[in-house]
Amino acid sequence: MTFRFLRNIFKNLSFKLLIGLSLLAIYLPGDLAPALANSPEAEQGLLDLRNSEFSDQGIQLEGEWKLYWNQLLVSASPTEYHEYVRLPKLWAHTQWKQQPLPTKGYATYSLDVLLPATSEPLALFVPDTYSSYALYANGHLIAHNGKTGTSPESTVPYWSQHVVPITADSDTLRLTLQVANFHHAKGGPYKHIRIGYLAALQAAHQVNFAFDIFLAGCLFMGGLFFLGLYLFGHHEKPNLYFSLFSILYSYRIVGTKQYALHDLFPHLDWALTLHFEYLSLFLSILMFTLYTRELYPKDTNKYLVRFIAGCCVTFAVATLLLPTTLFTHLVIPFLVLMAVGIPYTFYVYWVAARKHRPGARYALMSTGALLIVFVVIILEYFRIATPNKLLLFVGYIGFFFLQSLILSFRFASALKKAKESAEIGLKAKSEFLSTMSHEIRTPLNSVIGMTHLMLRDDPRPDQKQHLDVLLFSANNLLTIVNDILDFNKIEAGKITFATGPIDLATIARNIASGYSKSANDMGIELRAVIDPALTRKVIGDHTRTSQVISNLVQNAIKFTPKGSVTLRLRVEDHTDEDITVTIAVEDTGIGIAPEKQKEIFERFTQVDSSATRGFSGTGLGLAISKRILELQQVDLHLTSEPNVGSTFYFTQTFPLAPVVEAVAKPVVPTATLSEKPLEDVHILIVEDNKMNVLVAQNFLKRWGATSDVAANGKEALTKLDPSRHDLVLMDLHMPVMDGYEATRLLRERGESIPIIALTASIAQEVEGRVYSIGFNDIVVKPFNPNELLRVIAAHAPERNKLVV
User: Fold this and answer.
1) Which of 216, 479, 686, 706 has its CB 3.0 to 4.6 Å from that of 716, i.e. a possible disulfide?
2) How far apart are alpha carbons 633 and 480 in whole angstroms?
3) Tens digits of per-residue pLDDT, 412-455?
4) Topology given in CATH for the domain delimited by 672-803
5) Are 568 and 532 in contact (CB under 8 A)?
């Protein structure tokens, strides 16, 4: 299994590419170009370059330089005592009078360079030293870092790199390099000075500078991005730790090695930048350790992680408390710690990949690249190899890119899970609302039905007043339930539009007539003003158009204590194919303050949302109307002034309906209209709720019909007698056997008797299934008695058709 896993990993092209590039970073020395092959070496303080060709990187001034220990000379005298030492080399590795040099002190190095004949300007690339230097050419100061001195007080350390032009008045260049160190654990030169063409050295230096700035910028911006994900997301700790790691490590790119930050800000305090250099190293590894633990907590050893983290914290605290000459000794023990920590991190990711943890494969590849990059850096630190700058840059980018993929993968997975949870929650909410709708509508059917029955029994005036209040409250509760269900369907994207010919003028008049009683009860005048130009039917959704206008009218009546409400239809434009109509509802009500005008279109919002608000309702009417119009690419507008009134309006373009010649309907003789329109009709009521059975039986009895009752679908299969029953009223939701199954079985056995579905569900939600099974029509509970009568009469035997 392990072999198969490793084989699959190495099949991945990106992984092999990273490994290849990282290995090349070890074996291709130099900053941006191949190694400086066959560079001549100085012998006894003399370097002969007269027959040498300069490459783009120049020639390294390596070999034997003259060393004058404890002397700071501007031009070295041959009579002064000196010894020959190889450069670059730290003082701890340099012999003076057969004894190793101390790390603190000062010295002078000199070298004579025989220059080739060339017309191109020459220059020197001068790197940093531990920890200050001054470079003279033919007795003239051409470059320096800080200030060299003979004591800690007279020495000012600094680190930066320079490309300085040189003027060769003769074929010999006499270089004198002063070096002083009293502030660092190491002392002496440790990087090559190079000579070459000015343009080539400047170009190489600028490219190195650009690489460092670009890479540091990428890491820093990436760190800020993941920090933002942590702060404004779900506060996932892997995002936090990786962001801090990226930000801290970005400093190491510009604050060490090439010291690009020092070029940008040449007056930075050396001690401060040195503290940042070491703190960024210790703390970045601390953050990466914590990041790994949070990323795959089940695959890490908590004790080893605590040990590594504790060491990093200890090193960081020591950096803050100890002087520079002491805490700079911490690099070696820290490298030893990294020799354990990085391979262990690679092992953690390997285990996580074997267990198929999220993003573990990317983690394994990125940590493999990081492992090799750190090996290269360690080899460079000990002067064993010089990494190729470009490929090292690719290694860094590859590492951070793959680590970003891990967090992006986790973020996408979290979003996917959140989406799935939201979908489950939305489904559960829809099912809950559907169930609650059914459970509320069922008793409401009894309440409304019984109220209608009692209102038709000639109640006393005081009883009629109480029954009107009861009917109004029940209808108001039904409206609230319908609003919530409608808004839920809109949010779920399940709302549909059924288009057909509609008469806008008739809709407006019917709505005004329907709400006139409630308006009159409040002392409000409600009128409909129809543009005479609106003479044709249009194509639209009758239900949704009526719903929007009704909501606007009802809202206006509710918030108008006195005055009037006007429903106005005005034709804006008219062509042979369509007509543009503005539908407006104007009131003289309380008005809406400008700062509240956007809020009222939000769900469950009213102008006054305080606990002492003076108006009832869910606050869904306007939100539903706005959403219904938006789904038709129509905007709902508002103009309002507090204590003056409001106007809600929308402008919609409707296609014109075809003109159909009216067919004269036969006049039904008055003599045929019976007070018992369903006389001699025998109906089977299939319903489990006894109160609903009682309501239905009372209405049917008043209309002249006779009825039998079955408590469930299974009982209906037994009780139905086609020779006696003319029609079936079938509830859909019942115990033992529901209405769907009962109707399916009745149709399968050949029964053609009309079956009307009684349901507390929304008609649009069930009509597809209802009609496919074999129902003839649907009546939604709580039903209006007149609507129930209309549907029954439409499907009753021929002897009753005159009633329709």
Assistant:
1) 686
2) 26
3) 777 777 788 877 876 776 677 666 666 776 777 777 777 877 87
4) Rossmann fold (3.40.50)
5) no
543 closest CA partner among 586, 578, 581, 496: 496
CA dist., res. 85 & res. 87, Å (int): 6
Per-residue pLDDT of 315-341, as tens digits, reads 999 999 999 999 999 988 988 888 888
- Cis before 131? omega within 30: yes
Q: What is the mean pLDDT of residues 663-671?
A: 41
Chain centroid to Cα 651, Å, comes to: 36
> Does the model's pTM come out above 0.70?
no
pLDDT digits (tens, 9 = 90+) for 531-566: 999 988 999 988 788 888 988 998 899 889 889 999
**228: Cα separation from own chain's centroid:** 11
Are the C-beta atoms of residues 122 and 166 closer than 8 Å to each other? yes
Phi-psi region for residue 81, left (φ > 0), alpha (ψ -120 to 50) or beta? Answer: beta
Spatial neighbors of 435 by CB under 8 A, at least 6 apart, are none
CA 762 to chain centre: 35
- Report the distance separating Cα 91 and Cα 18, nearest Å: 37
Token pair for residue 285? Answer: 């590894």
Closest CA to 130 of 274, 25, 252: 274
Same fold, 496-655 and 672-803: no
Over residues 24-39, the mean pLDDT reads 41
Mean pLDDT over residues 137-166, rounded?
Answer: 94
How much is the average pLDDT of 497-508?
Answer: 87
Burial 153-171 (b: 16+ CB within 10 A, else e): eebbbbbbbbbeebebeee
**What is the model's pLDDT at position 568?**
93
Indicate if the pLDDT at residue 255 is higher than 60.
Answer: yes
> Quick one: which H or E segment has residue 96?
strand 95-96
Model confidence pLDDT, tens digit, residues 356-368: 887 777 777 776 6
In CATH, which superfamily holds the domain spanning 46-204? Galactose-binding domain-like (2.60.120.260)
- Other C-beta atoms closer than 10 Å to the C-beta of 687 total 26
Whole-number Å distance between alpha carbons of 193 and 179: 13
Between residues 605 and 795, which one has the greater pLDDT?
A: 795
SS (H, E, C) 10-27: HHCHHHHHHHHHHHHHHH
Tokens of 627: 């959403």
- Where are the chain's structural domains? 2-27+212-311+340-375+386-417, 46-204, 496-655, 672-803
- Report how far apart, in Å, the C-alpha atoms of 276 and of each of 211, 219, 223, 246, 287 are: 21, 17, 17, 15, 15
Name the DSSP letter for residue 592.
-
Bridge partners of 387, per DSSP, are: none
Give the Cβ contact number of residue 503 at 10 Å: 17
Q: Residue 614 above 80 pLDDT? A: no
Q: CA-to-CA distance for 750 and 757, rounded, in angstroms?
A: 18
Tell me which residue of 330, 88, 58 sits closest to 194, measured CA to CA: 58
What is the mean predicted confidence (pLDDT) over 99-125?
A: 93
Taking CA atoms, 188 is separated from 161, 183, 783, in Å, by 15, 12, 98
- For residue 729, list its beta bridge partners: 685, 756
Alpha-carbon 800 to chain mean position: 63
Q: 496-655, which class in CATH?
A: alpha beta
